[in-house]
Amino acid sequence: MHGASPRTPGTATRGETVPTVPPAESAADVVDVTALLERGRTLAAPVLRAAVERLAAPMDTVAAYHFGWIDAEGNPSDGDGGKAVRPALALLSAQAAGAAPEVGVPGAVAVELVHNFSLLHDDLMDGDEQRRHRDTVWKVHGPAQAILVGDALFALANEILLELGTVEAGRATRRLTAATRALIDGQAQDISYEHRERVTVEECLEMEGNKTGALLACACSIGAVLGGADDRTADTLGKYGYHLGLAFQAVDDLLGIWGDPEATGKQTWSDLRQRKKSLPVVAALAAGGPASERLGQLLAADAKSTDFDSFSEEEFAARAALIEEAGGRQWTAEEARRQHAIAVEALAAVDMPDQVRAQLVALADFVVVRKR
Amino acid sequence: MHGASPRTPGTATRGETVPTVPPAESAADVVDVTALLERGRTLAAPVLRAAVERLAAPMDTVAAYHFGWIDAEGNPSDGDGGKAVRPALALLSAQAAGAAPEVGVPGAVAVELVHNFSLLHDDLMDGDEQRRHRDTVWKVHGPAQAILVGDALFALANEILLELGTVEAGRATRRLTAATRALIDGQAQDISYEHRERVTVEECLEMEGNKTGALLACACSIGAVLGGADDRTADTLGKYGYHLGLAFQAVDDLLGIWGDPEATGKQTWSDLRQRKKSLPVVAALAAGGPASERLGQLLAADAKSTDFDSFSEEEFAARAALIEEAGGRQWTAEEARRQHAIAVEALAAVDMPDQVRAQLVALADFVVVRKR
Predict the structure, then answer these.
(1) Best residue in A118, A181, A230 for a mutation probing chain B (most B CBs within 10 Å)
(2) DSSP-assigned letter for residue B70
(3) Helix (H, G, I), strand (E, B) or coil at A70
(4) What is the CATH number of the domain that holds B61?
(5) What is the count of structural domains for chain B?
(6) Residue span of the structural domain in which A263 resides
(7) Band of residue B1 on the pLDDT scale cut at 50, 70, 90
(8) Tens digit of pLDDT for each residue in A28-62?
(9) Is B195 on the interface with A (CB under 8 A)?
(10) Residue B48 domain-assigned?
(11) Exposure of A149 by Cβ count < 10 A (0-12 exposed, 13-18 middle, 19+ buried)?
């Protein structure tokens, strides 16, 4: 699928800017991305909160904790609600179909609910104890609540859309359901890959397409569907979103190894500590050559190691250096740019207002230069 | 809500027929209920199997194990797929709206998928190791697969309906989503009640209405909705299903204590072993009098007991006898009849073919006389 094995190893070190830069003439120069994200957050937040308030106790409290609205003791908190890229995209999606941004709001909220349903369940399945600088729900409220509230958020997502009672809402829900099934497939792949010694670059991309691409594709098309767009238009906007998701994930995979803990809220070398077979790792292993082979030997030994948890900073840094030397870092940065380019190109096939097009391009640029 | 505290204690012992009898002129005399259940099973099974086959590996295998189509080693098995009351009801629901039974099939399958989604997640949350005479999915395939496959079945349920692409399918999915939310609410209540010393009869009925009534209400209305029935008709059929569900659950609660292990596939005194605050228990505790008080003292001590797991048959039998002496068994049997009567009465408000009406009444009768 992507056969490139990079020649020049990257040079940046942990904490520096991820070496993925937007094209020279960036739409970000003329569009205020911060304002776009803020608009998505502002329009979606009250509807999301009202949806969560429908949950019976104690699920409403558990969900409010997950979203960062309250702390573990139940006191109000203005936690980090995330970047809110999806809501911003869902509103632009409505505008791409000529509708008002508000038309996309139920879609934005439904997508956020599904995203958070998957976080609740994945954190439990993966045994992850931290998310967004806080203990995860299963850690604070127990596994049963993580399962139950995840289920409830998934059901709420469908409820929010279907109570619109329109044909478009039915189509939107069908797309959301397809995306959710892909999310679940991706998590199943992620779990099965953990037990395998080798994962190909293609398998990794397929898994990331399911786990990240499908829901971003839905975010980018759901507003248009609610605004009455035909399936071809929705599919094309979905293509933009899918590849944007892959670019997003490639950047995430870079941040998962070389990201600044201050910005990401994760530990240093986070993905290496979790033995994640992310893109830089699988690309480095596929590249061949001395560094690639040495990395393969080290990771194979790590998989059997009993004192992996007590590895020092230096041991993880050595693995990261080998990944970089084998070209995994640069390949992934290039992959982010390739996926970004495919995403932006897809927009050409949809007739939409110039300003909306510029905003979608600016969001794509933002995704590949972000630092968290 | 139901203030009756029975006066005459029941006399039947474990293994005997549950003392809930159909009315003197039973519709079951003229309707072949076995054939009705078989028709539901026969029409729904291939569609259900085809739906499950859409799942990616290993989720398809895990789901096939859960449904009893294969054993833990992956060999074909014709396990006990359950009574299939819900599919039979969904097909009759379509006929009640003047449509062919086949029109109800996607609804029957969607309801079965949601029912099994909830079983997969509830068994994990409750730590239940056995279902239908076999180890539960989390026990055989691990907690992550139980979560993941449950999620996938829930998503599939929506998919099956929404891909019909009709306005009716949207309405049907909305009803299914509402029922699913009620299921989740019921499970949340069930979990919270476990940690409480006392649960009122009203709270128990509300929880059972959510856990059992709501999805049976959906089964009884979804076929009609797919067949084009208006909301009033669907709501009335739903009322029949809701109260049928409460009757069903009251019988289940009786079987959970006094059922024959050979027939139910559960241990003797199953619900008592699990400290379940089921209807006979809460009714007995609410009844007052010496047996009720003695029972209350025993159960309060049991809640704190550290050797509860090693209790003998006799100790559980003593608790069951106190529940019966306090009137909990008889009250629950009467409650099953009350709910049965409300269900059958609801049918009078819907105009439908006489034969369909007789079949719905016969299924209601079947539910209150079943032995497993």
Answers:
(1) A181
(2) B
(3) strand
(4) 1.10.600.10
(5) 1
(6) 27-369
(7) very low
(8) 567 899 999 999 999 999 999 999 999 999 999 99
(9) no
(10) yes
(11) buried
